[in-house]
């Protein structure tokens, strides 16, 4: 705590906080951001999953509104919320790890690679797009190891229709069913592909977020509107460029319930790519692009805004 000469106001700096305040705050902020990001736009994510699972003989819906209306009418209003329990359970811890590793790695890289004053603080508010991208990659590897099994459960539940498991099926029931039929490996078969999807997504997301922030908010002050805009821009670009990997990930995570015999027999990334291309050509890797972008623009904006807000409340 320090008092500026000639002023009566007291300025509280980060060093005045308890030693563990920064870590605890980032864990809380990250968990809050993750849950907000995934739950608010969850129905759009469900539409994306269903589009990516469609066989080549099934026409893809051209309108998200009509898709939502059709599914809700045929299967009930809750149909598009199947799997949200898995997201709530997994996204909090995974994003807590995500943002904490990001801040810690960014701080380490800033200390090692720049001329900035050395600091042991976890919070690093300086703008370094390339360093942010590197830190985002480290954060993704750590958080995806925790989140991938929950993502598998989420997509299996999103794909559930009235002809399969009922909408009241519980998370543990799905997990048990997958384990009995496909073994533990089913929860991690998509992990390498998830990393191939999320590492470039994270690099683009963090890099474009910091670049956009440097243009829109050069003073790096807390501004929810600018955080929101920067996050939306970053999320939309990252989502569009990584959609092909997301299609492959979906094929791997849902192969156990696929009605397509060839897709049920895929064994990994190369096998999935080959099978998908043989059946549908390049279109197999563009499915779900529109809802993926529509999901990620607001969800990433929400995530960054919620994260920056939580940091502001908890740290400053």
UniProtKB/TrEMBL annotation:
Its main location: mitochondrion. SUPFAM superfamilies: Mitochondrial carrier. The keyword Oxidoreductase does not apply. Solcar repeats lie at residues 21-108, 127-215, 222-313. InterPro entries: MCP (IPR002067), MCP_dom_sf (IPR023395), MCP_transmembrane (IPR018108). GO terms for cellular component: mitochondrial inner membrane. Keywords: Membrane, Mitochondrion, Mitochondrion inner membrane, Repeat, Transmembrane, Transmembrane helix, Transport. It is found in: Mitochondrion inner membrane. Belongs to the mitochondrial carrier (TC 2.A.29) family. This is Mitochondrial thiamine pyrophosphate carrier 1. It comes from Meyerozyma guilliermondii (strain ATCC 6260 / CBS 566 / DSM 6381 / JCM 1539 / NBRC 10279 / NRRL Y-324). The lineage of its organism: Eukaryota, Fungi, Dikarya, Ascomycota, Saccharomycotina.
């Amino acid at each position: 705590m320090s008092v500026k000469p000639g002023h009566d106001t007291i300025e509280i700096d980060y060093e005045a906080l308890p030693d563990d305040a920064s870590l605890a705050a980032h864990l809380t902020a990250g968990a809050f951001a993750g849950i907000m990001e995934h739950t608010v736009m969850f129905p759009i994510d469900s539409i994306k999953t269903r589009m990516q699972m469609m066989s080549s003989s099934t026409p893809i819906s051209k309108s998200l509104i009509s898709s939502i209306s059709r599914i809700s009418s045929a299967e009930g209003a809750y149909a598009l919320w199947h799997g949200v329990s898995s997201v709530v359970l997994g996204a909090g811890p995974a994003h807590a790890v995500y943002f904490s590793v990001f801040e810690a790695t960014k701080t380490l890289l800033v200390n090692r690679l720049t001329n900035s004053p050395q600091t042991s603080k976890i919070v690093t508010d300086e703008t370094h797009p390339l360093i942010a991208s590197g830190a985002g990659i480290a954060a993704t590897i750590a958080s995806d190891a925790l989140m991938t099994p929950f993502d598998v459960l989420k997509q299996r539940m999103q794909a559930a229709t009235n002809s399969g498991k009922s909408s009241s099926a519980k998370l543990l029931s799905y997990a048990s069913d997958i384990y009995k039929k496909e073994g533990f490996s089913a929860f991690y078969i998509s992990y390498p592909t998830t990393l191939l999807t999320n590492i470039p997504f994270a690099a683009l997301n963090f890099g474009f977020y910091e670049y956009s922030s440097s243009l829109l908010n050069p003073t790096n002050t807390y501004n929810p509107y600018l955080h929101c805009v920067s996050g939306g821009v970053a999320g939309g670009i990252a989502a569009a460029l990584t959609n092909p990997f997301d299609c492959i990930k979906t094929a791997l995570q849902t192969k156990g319930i696929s009605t397509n015999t060839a897709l049920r027999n895929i064994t990994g990334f190369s096998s999935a790519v080959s099978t998908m291309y043989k059946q549908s050509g390049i279109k197999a890797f563009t499915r779900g692009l529109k809802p993926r972008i529509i999901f990620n623009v607001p969800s990433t904006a929400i995530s960054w805004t919620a994260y920056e807000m939580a940091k502001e409340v908890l740290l400053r």
